[in-house]
Amino acid sequence: MHHKSGARSKIPARREVSARPRRGEDSPAPAVGARRIRAVHRRLVAQQGTFSPKPRLPIIDELVMTVLSQHTSDANSGRAFAALKARFPAWEQVLDAPVEEIAGAIRSGGLADQKAPRIKRILAEIEEREGRLELGRLNELDDQSVDSYLCSLPGVGPKTAACVLVFSMGRAAFPIDTHVHRIVRRLGWIDSKASADQTHRRLGPQVPPGIRYELHMSLITHGRNVCRAQRPRCRECVLLDFCDEGPGFIARGEHATADRA
Ligand code: SF4
User: How far does CA 6 lie from the centroid of its chain?
Assistant: First the structure.
């Protein structure tokens, strides 16, 4: 994921993304209410301090950036995006380029042979629908319509759509990245077996719109520094008394200790 140096500034409270269950899917309410979510947000912000928003990218740029950010670091995906733009200054050039050349340009972002055809498919679909490679008109649509449009593009799911909504369009979306997903399961906010997409649909609407962006950012920072996938630092965690799994990690000795941080 990119965007990890995001903002504490208030995101304008635009219309909410309603993560409605799709046909045939259950959508039990998460085991958390807005009050607890706000309390967790306050603690994380108190610990982490303020952060600044990164400049907004145009919608297609953000879409491509989000594809590049998958399964790699911000630094790598940022380098890959810069290299892609340097090699092909216009998206039309990417669309016209052989997929091997696109892959060559984004090699530093990892999984280039998967991401290059994916980017090309997305651009081709946008061109087919819009007659050009420009999505500024989505700014006139409500959140749900933007979400539906983006999720109907090839290979674009709810997380990518939420990233575009929040980072490019300033809407109140709540992307569920790998850190957010891990932490909300450990906190007990969502069923431990819930997929990221299920978590998006079930938990997203529960998060107060005004704190979605900031909570997303602070959970990512928490996931990198404290609630790591392996040996979380539960004893130092400001969320320990809110957490379902933290006491278990400590009891089983699976948390980080001073000599095994
Ligand atoms: Fe993660 Fe441990 Fe904190 Fe729970 S107590 S949020 S598992 S670091």
Answer: 12
Residue 177 has pLDDT above 50, yes or no: yes
How many Å apart are CA 73 and CA 20, to the nearest integer?
A: 31
With tokens 């929040």, the residue in question is: 166
Residue 239 Cα to ligand 1 midpoint, Å, equals: 6
Alpha helices in the chain (DSSP H): 34-48, 59-69, 74-87, 91-96, 99-105, 112-130, 143-151, 158-163, 178-187, 196-203, 212-225, 246-251
* Most informative mutation of 192, 220, 239, 250 for ligand 1 (most atoms within 8 A of CB): 239
* CB burial readout 76-86, b (16+ within 10 A) else e: bbbbbbebbee
pLDDT of residue 65: 95
Give nearest CA residue, ligand 1 atom 4. 246
Categorize the per-residue pLDDT at 59 as very low, low, confident or very high, splitting at 50, 70 and 90: very high
Average pLDDT, the chain: 88
DSSP state of 16: B
For residue 255, which atom of ligand 1 is closest to its CA?
A: 2
The tens digit of pLDDT for each residue in 224-255 reads: 999 999 999 999 999 999 999 999 999 998 88
Kindly report, residue by residue over 184-196, the tens digit of the pLDDT: 999 999 998 999 9
Residue 260 · residue 231 · CB < 8 Å: yes
Please say if 193 is a catalytic residue: no
